[in-house]
Amino acid sequence: MTSTQNRVRRRNGPLPTFHVRGPILGFLARRPLLRFLARRILVAILLAWGITLVTFVLTNLVPGDPVAANLGQRAVGDPVAVAQWRAEHGLDKSLPQQYLLFLEGLLHGDLGTSQQSHRPVSEDLAEFVPATLELAGAAILVSLVLGVAFGLIAALRRDRLADHVLRMLSLIGVSVPTFWLALLAFYVFFYRLQLTPGSGRVDPAIGAPPPVTGLHTVDAALAGRWDIFTSALGHLIVPALVLSLYTIGLLTRFTRSAVLEVLGQDYVRAGRAKGLSGRVILFRYVLRSALVPIITVAGLAFGSLLSGTVLVEAIFAWQGVGQYAYKSATALDLPAIMGVGLVVSGVYLAINLLVDVLYGVIDPRVRLR
Amino acid sequence: MTLTITGLRVAIRDTQILSGIELALHKGQVHGLAGESGSGKTMTGFAVLGLLPHGARASGRIELAGRDLLGLPDKELNRVRGNDIAMVFQDPSTSLHPMLTVGRQLTEHMRPHLGLGKAEARERALELLTKVRIPNPAEAYRRYPHQFSGGMRQRIAVAVALACDPQVLIADEPTTALDVTVQAGILRLLRGLCDELGLAVLLITHDLGVMSAIADEVSVLRDGLVVESGARKSVLRTPTHPYTRSLLEDLP
Which of A37, A64, A89, B25 has the highest local Cβ count within 10 Å? Predict the structure, then answer.
């Protein structure tokens, strides 16, 4: 925009609003929540594209020669063989061209072949991702329920015994290292008390349920195989609890302070002045407002929870993405690393989108202006 | 006599906040409660509705229709709150819940207090919005507080307070957070409602200008005690207590 135009605009006030809308925009303009969702999803798609770019560039920046990693000793010495292999894998093309090929493959669900398993990376991921999702999902569920409940109790019983006990517990939760806790839990519950099954996702004698979602507990329930369900749940409980302890501690603390802050707000006093029941005040007035900071923290906590899965999976021999990522990284298995990177950032993206959408659902000031 | 406060004392831990307040509110009259900040005006209002902060102890008598509100169990006090005695707060941008629609905040206490159904409550809410002169009530009913101006929000807060036909309205600095230009409108509204509905209004304010505009009776509060009380004219024109005089001299 030129400075003349700027000056004209300043003199004439803001530009008239754009009245000619297509059918889609017109439809959205009448539905603020949908318009808000559409905008968030659009941003998420742009971010997803950015993630592919960053993943591709980072992987290509890694000082390592895929030729040396994939061809035998003698073939590396043979310029013809090297050139042929490079052409086969599109490595003779320029980086932008390679990126386009990578994107094209990605759109078809093709992430290349793992040098470790010699299987398509997408197949590997399809096997390992649901295992991690089951573990992390169970952990985040447990942390949300317990963390919010504990925080609420601590806030309502402020400076009383329950508050002090919960403060200690949350302090322990955020300060105990996950790997140590995992080892301890494994030792106590499996070895000493023999309360829970040991490692793995399900008793090998029973076997995995027919795969639908890849989550053993869900699949077992869908198939009506309650014996598998019990076994899978038994295997899930201890690692999920271990994984969630940190987030429980975190959420307890944040929920407590969020609830205390809302309790001091004028509108809570106004609600009491209206003679509303304690239950209505707590859930409609207090918890709803407190949820905004709580879901912010929960979204962030999910990230630390995912990185925690690497250790927990290793200790409980849980065949998930964490283990797969660790093995791929130590073997410099580039396609696998890229695949894991994409999946993990995709999960982050989804969580962020969810948090954004929840803001809009909970707080009308976010979606309406 | 609608509401009588006798010998009201409030202490938080070891600090005495109110040391024996005497007040009487009458039907159809605005009773102004004046005093500097920290004199206990707001605490007096809170004490009436049992909204004192945690750890506060109150003694004395707050009598409404023969019942002492101070001795009332929580459940019965909840039936008085919003139903017999309602309150309008200082800042409508914080006293209305930002995440609930105007309609919800107008009707949520009608249903338990008045036993109204959803449709009846909505009907009544629209009437109230019209009464406090909110343009286009049906549209306003669906909206959220942040979509209104400060003056409009305070009108909505007044409508919320009037929803269950209270006998007593406590207005705690209802114009302090508003622009001077909209203050007069809110005060006129309160005065009009007081006359029309026969409300007993306790108008808490530090602003003697506001007081002189609409109060019938004035009490001056200092350090938790009423130092002077009487008809507006006598208190504001011929104050007997030196503190009232100094307050009046501070007026611009």
Answer: B25
